[in-house]
């Protein structure tokens, strides 16, 4: 049966922050299903810094979302109609659902097949986009790549963000001194009280550099980098010999990146990598498919043992709320994983 | 017997380029030797970009040269007086001789003991500061760390410099496509004709970015980075998935580095490390002492087989010429290894 879908299509590439007119909300009829297809109703849409990258025509790790295409996005949903045996009506699926209410689950048409989640769900649904989803796995891989050891000092920027909040707890589990960097006193209190950071530096304070120096008296062995910009630059200046930078994200740049042109700022302390014989390793979770099971197993174990705190900011208001909600990632308004509830 | 030594002492830290008054040439009497000491006459002084780092009070890999101390430098010399059995008169030694004509070789007083070279010398003396010295070993380690493979594309900045010229030939030996970046058409011609580069991009040409793009149609798998600045930034923008950056030097920054302050430029393309899952590894040759023999053996083998071309720029005029000669490294006036002949 044909249904009315509502979807955000990318009409033009944002110049700086996402602005009105960059995305357009359109109503479209879904086609009658044929064999091999199912129809999924999006329940939760994950908002990630990388969404902004996908909108830009830069040299990214996936092609830019084509102009006029439905905006790319990860989410979970429920199968409401089906002509495929592996996705019965009522099943819960996750993957690249896009910024839309209804998804035509056709493996030949989607960028990547949707995955069917276990039934019954072993954790609340939002966790499959957060602590037990790509976000949690990203944190796990980034900590593991850095070979963080007990007694070392790690700095995690975006300390209360979706990835950072999990990374901090994985770092603590390894016995490291864990120093967070977050925006504002509320987040910093939360980081210490709930997420187990030893110290949290408020980068909105004028003296954040001094705070960071004080918090890392023995220098920095590992940087789990989510932000880039001046924070990363300062951290680079405090690396110890043999330090490792797990480069996960540089959200400070995503709104201003100007390929081929001039760019405000830029990192000035990369030379410290020589002096300290240090390494930066950029990574993307999608390269680690063969370790998802290990990562999810580890995180689920911590969760089950009550040793993993996770935060969600769920924005209500349906799909319509997505563009405005995305801005929270860049202003830092969200705590933990940022989701939009598209339907119940 | 007491002798008159002439030495450059660091009187103040340079602000930008080394200027008159930063170093002072002084005359001093050497002490009477006691047991365990020898007196060495410096023959050749190696000028390296890192000399400039040693003058600055930044977070370097060795302590800054103290104010009023003899300027640190690597060189070779001949033992002219001795009260130690391991350094007979006439022996040739190499190591941290300092910017001075006479060196008191006392292991308790020097930063590092001098090494006695084999007798007779298996190659011309200057080679022990270049192709078979710390410079050649640096090139060897940097190429090896990057795990450069046949068929890959490597870019080497400072292509005709002391390290770059050797790195280029080691890269070619591995069967890579080797792209150099050097300053000026003469150097570029030399890079292709004598050093075996497949292509050399003249970074003084206005269209150097386009030239570099054309020279790397399949992107860049390895960057052997000696320069930093806009060249490195552009290279970062062309890295392939899984690319490795061997970060050896950033000479473009050594005169302008301003610790804790504002800094012109800065790298804007570090985010590409995420997109391309790429790695930067900073390294220093002094960490690889256990591989010096392997490296020198490999380089000596190439040299013996006539497969290693090396260039020297030897500045005459004695020790006095050292400060002015150092500037050549930053203007790019030298070809290959830059040395000062302090005595015959």
Can you tell me about this structure?
The structure is a homodimer of 344-residue chains. The first copy, chain A, has 344 residues and is an alpha/beta fold. The first copy, chain A, folds into two domains: 4-130 and 310-341, Medium-chain alcohol dehydrogenases, catalytic domain (Quinone Oxidoreductase, Chain A, domain 1), CATH 3.90.180; 137-288 and 296-302, 3-Layer(aba) Sandwich (Rossmann fold), CATH 3.40.50.720. Chain A contains ten helices and 15 strands. In chain A, strands 3, 4, 5, 6, 7, 14 and 15 form a seven-stranded mixed sheet that branches. In chain A, strand 11, helix 6 (229-236) and strand 12 form a beta-alpha-beta unit. In chain A, helix 2 (134-145) packs across helix 3 (162-173) and helix 2 (134-145) packs across helix 9 (292-304). The two termini of chain A are 21 Å apart. Mean pLDDT of chain A is 94; it is low at 259-263.
Name some characteristics of this structure.
homodimer, 26% strand, 10 helices, seven-stranded mixed beta sheet, 344 residues, 25% helix, Quinone Oxidoreductase, Chain A, domain 1, alpha/beta, Rossmann fold
